[in-house]
Each structure stands twice: as structure tokens, then as C-alpha cells.
Amino acid sequence: MKSTKRLLALALVVACAALFGAQNALATESGTTVTNNATISYAVDGVDQDDVTTDTPATFVIDQLVDVLVVSNSNPEYVTPGETTPYLSFTVTNQGNDYQDFVLTLSRGTAENDIYDEDSSILSNLTLSTPTAGYSVANDGTNDYIDELAPGDSVEIRATYSQVPSSVVNGDEQDIILLATARAGHNTVTGATGAGALGAVLVATGLSTPDTAGSVDIVFGDEAGDASGDIARNAAHSDMAQFEVQSASISITKSSFVVYDGVNVVSSGEEPKRIPGACVIYRVVVTNDAGAAVSANLGNITDVLPTAYVTMASNFYDGAGATANGPVRVFTMNSNRANVEADASSPSGVYYTTNYTLSGSTLTVDLAAILAAEGSAPNEYEAGELKPGESVYVDFAVLID
After folding, report:
1. What's the CATH number of domain 250-400, 2.40.50, 2.60.40, 2.160.20, 1.10.3470?
2. Which N-terminal residues, if any, form the signal peptide (predicted)?
């Protein structure tokens, strides 16, 4: 008899544990009434008796668990100066057991505010939306919110930036935090409505308040998040994402040197001077800094000549005078390009170029044409591409009037 009692008790424990596990896995909706009877079989003097069932079943109502999780999908989201409509992506998940509205609030992180320094209105220039089918970001005139997020469902929330300031530079960052705060939603068990409007603020049942089997208590189960004041168990959760600027870092310098004056004999060690008739070489150097994150695709170099004093030469000059080459030459430094000279020591190919125009006093050199697309990975180049650490030199000859 004692063994039978032990087996019956163990069976009841196992059944309860299995039921509890199943309810957790299914996230039974709050307000659901759970009714359970127990039945005992027994015998008297070896004769089986009729089973006895509880007169009054044990009945309770499933309480409401409010638990939201926000996870950033953009760590970081790389942007370029002037880029339009880049976005940060977050996932908001209803880990509770009831339909909830979720108010969405954006704030800036305190660590990185480089982009904010250029755009102090960045928060108002961010727009919230979702691509998740069946959901949208609503607004009640004050709050952006997700309407009626089902238990166990997740939505992607995008914070889209209207335009990155063109004044930001490579390495600038901006931390953005999304906070989702639960509000009351509809309930399919009790028939409570609420779809299409922002629900009421939720109030948790006191931690020391005894459970009431016949009514719905509210339990906050969320973790602390990244937003200021986002503590654990406050019906809200937040996470931080980041915009990071990845850009080329382009600099341009211009210098000049004299190579021939028609008087001083360079081959005899005499140095030419900048006298009328002398040939001066202007040198323009464009560099993409070695610390830059990405390549730049160069367009045109434009130079307005001081034509009151100089005239564009018809040929390039060296110490002996005019050469047979045109007046514009281009070479690169620290580059793996095969079709543009790496230095000035052995001019050939497109070292001297015809990809320029002279309109009045304005010289335009087409670097996208000169630095043509070439090669294959890892030494592949797009037209005009200048990779981090590379420089392109443009020399052109003028004669002093």
C-alpha cells in the first residue's frame, strides 16, 4: 500500500511538471482559465471501489507576463558623408504572453556624438518604420508605436536617417538607442479590445502582493537595457546601434618647379630660373590617406591658369628644352595599377596623357579616364579609383610670359 501511495504521488508531480513545461513553451495567453480535477482509485479488502473525483476543481487564471527584448542588428551601420536614407535596424520581440502595444523612443548614446556635432537635429531626422509583414509603426500624434504585437512575434524596426551631413569625416560615429515600452493590448481570451489605438500604461502587481488565483496579475520580466533609466522589470527594454562614417580622406596639394629657362645650361650644373621664357612645371598631388576606410573614385582636376603671366606649353620640357611629349603627364605612387606609371623615372604608356582640355585659362584633367578600370582581385581597380594610401601626381608645363 505504501508503495502504491508513493507511485501515485510521483505521478502527480510528473504530470504537474509536464503541464507547467508545456504552458511555458506555448506561452499561454493571459486570462486563460485553467481547471483541473483529481481522481483517486482505491480498493477495500481487495475489492476495487468506485473512483472518487474532487467535488470542486482547482481553478486559476493565467497571469500576464510583460517581457520585451530589443536587439540591435547594426553594430555598426557604415555610412558615407552626404549619404541619403541609411538606416539602423533593430528587432523588437514580445516575449510575454499577451498582445501588447510598444511605444518606440529614440535617444542618443553618451559615448559617441561625432555626427551629432554636425547635426544637432539628428533625432528628428530619424524616421521609424518596419518592413515586417502584418505590422506597421503607428503614431497617435505624440508617440510612435507598434500596434498589437502578438506573443512570441518579432518585428524589425528601422531608424532611417534622412541624410548624413556632408561635413562628417572618416571614423565619425553616432550611437542611437531604441527603447520599446509595453502598453496594454487586446486579449483574445477576455475579449478586451484595443487594436488601432495606443493602449493604456501597464502597472505591475506589487512584488509582495500575494497571488490571486481568480484574477490576472501583471508581472514585468524584462531585463535592463542601454537607455538611461532603463532598469530591469520596468516593462521596457532598449539596445544601442551605431552609425559609423567610412569614407575616403582626400587631400590635394599644388607646387611648382622650374626645369628650363633658355639661358642657364642645366647639363653644366647651372640652375634654371623663373625668367620670361622659362618652363615651369606645376605639380598637383591628390592623396587618399592611408588611414582612410574606403577608396575614392576621382573625377576631374580643374586648374585656372594665371594667364596674365603664363601660357600653357605645347610640350613638356626637361633641362635641355622642349621634348616630343605633350604638356601633361600623370603618375601614381604606392599603387598596384599596371597601366599608369608608378613613378617619373621611365615615362611610357599613359604617363603623358591627352585626357585633358584647355578652355580659355581653365585646364581640366580627366582622372577617371586616365585611371581606367583594370586588373582583377586583389589588384582590381574601378575607373578613377584611388585606394587608401595611394597618390596620383599630375604635372603640366607652362611658359612664363
Report:
1. 2.60.40
2. 1-27
